[in-house]
Give the backbone structure.
Amino acid sequence: METKNVKAFGTDAPDASLKQMNIERRSVTPKDIEIEILYCGVCHSDLHTARNDWGFTVYPAVPGHEIVGKVTQVGSGVTKLKVGDFAAVGCLVDSCRTCDSCKQDLEQYCLNGFTGTYNGEDKHLGGMTFGGYSEKVVVDEHFVLKVPSNLDLAATAPLLCAGITTWSPLRHWKVGKGSKVAVVGLGGLGHMAIKLAKGLGAEVTLFSRTPDKTKDALDLGADAVVISTDDNQMNSVKGTFDLIIDTVPYVHDVNPYVGTLSVNGTLVLVGYLGGLEPFLHTVPMILGRKAVAGSVIGGIAETQELLDFCGQHNIVSEIEMIKMQDINEAYERMLKSDVRYRFVIDMASLKE
């Protein structure tokens, strides 16, 4: 298969800084779309992969799965988009498309394993896939999304991960007018959860450990803020919420939040991978038919639904734009939660 050499930013080792490198992209096949990447959001998963925090990174690694750009070439069989259109790519670039999950538009749960936008098995060139910290990407049209024309392109990029990660549970648990939703953690995912739940008509509360984020949460659309370290405030919302979206990316005690679920309520974990500590107490779950669940990103149809919804309601992420050359500093700031609320790379800087 013919390939093209393109500029990218990646890393060769877990303890190495990201730097400019060259990677190979496949030439367009009949069902492929080539996209010039204009903006790429920066996700915690990018950092975890670059530093091999999860233990399965294959180097060299080029992160980035919140991609927005312009179509520069299409294959002969492509019908979804044309040259010049704005397009987006999220966390998936392939799946088996034949298993029960894929047939239900749940490619993120592909029973044979989906192909991640980066650090996934490249079925075309061999080796591993390279992500959006690069000039261009070539993706099968099924996994390419249309961007509503009214949305700010840079601020749209985080919708491809932070947005869909919170949208999917909101839709699965049928949040709408009259729903009572709480969000744990006000970061890249948390601020999107507030905006999207509010857009769906829910009454939205933020759980925060300190009052510092109160003004920000209310400005984003939250109806209330509950300080989770204040026993009186926590007691005041016992049995209240239909759905809690927990976006905290590190180990923490979820038991206090379970007590605030209504009968049949669900707490869904979208930010943390690993064991729960301390142990999950089952008594309040059993006595209220409450659930603790997990969710990850969304399928292609659901992601397009999200983008269309955001277009209709003019919802985008709150971002801080950076140059590609500033990515290592951005990672350090992200570890300190020093961003409101998502870094987005202006990929034009890669040409400097």
In short: The chain has a mean pLDDT of 96. The longest strand covers residues 32-41. The radius of gyration is 20 Å. The domain at 3-161+318-351 is CATH 3.90.180.10 (Quinone Oxidoreductase; Chain A, domain 1).
